Amino acid sequence: MRLLTSALCATVASGLLCGCAGTFPAGTYGDAAPARAVQVRHEPVPTATPEPRGGIYVSQFDGTDILGYGSGNKALKGPICTIRSGMYVNDVAVDGRGNLIDPDGASKYVTVFKGPRMCGEKLGSFRDQYGQPSDASSLDAETGKIAVANIRDHGSLPGSLSICTLRSGCTSNLTNPKMYAAEAVAMARNDCWVDAKRTAAGGAGLIYFAGCAGQGEAATGFRNSTTGGIDIDNQGNLVIIDQTKSVVYIYRGCNPACTVVGGPFALKAECFFGKLNSANTLYATVDQLGGAIDFYSYSTKAIKFEHAVKGLPISLAPEGIAQNPRSRQ
Question: Pick from 41, 141, 151: which is nearest to 91 by CA?
Fold first, then answer.
């Protein structure tokens, strides 16, 4: 996970998002974007013609494009479409209607693009006045609530969960004393879960917000030791990556008591975000150092590596991922 103000890669305390191992130049990986002057004209522009339904989006932290790849593209010869975004995008999300949600870390804008076709036109955007957005989730981003995880609030305060709509922007900002950096979020019906760094030193905690409101409760029975991306499968189970250990746990409940129903399942490469397809047959992650999308078969009994699709631009730090259509939560 990356912040705007620091490069936090080499340790567990950094909470880096994906594929970070070894020593890298300052600002290459970490919780926030590099500390430098940034001028962003947030006018995301899709390619001229929306592409066919179905595919995978990959965001690039150091790039200005969200890449759209077609379904069944095992060669990854190139994107079928792109969307111009701001810089420092940690993750992207697809809602229940196939709309794409783009939370830009640099501009602090969250933009929604029309689905279910890939790279549809811009439906609108709003500024997250509460902090640096790192992830988002929504059942219907065009007309409903959008939950936005802020890896940090403005200034030096801990992160938060903003509840927003495309029409009205962010109207509430939720905090919890055990939520230092809100790095990943998932919404199911009216409830929200945030995978958060517990303190500045690290650690992971899952915070449950009933009705996506209130002060939230720390989930019990949560076994992840470091933060990672969250998805929800068709049975309502939470699928959460433990980034440093490169494993996935599957939980039931977590409202606030968690029951482990699967895992830990080993991943091929160290990654932060992972997403399921609508049939829950494929789970996809980004191998940032390998420049690849890794695909796994999915069930609560096993998450098994199937194949890798190489060709992502490693220099632009690809890390966020969304499958379209997404898991039917």
Answer: 151
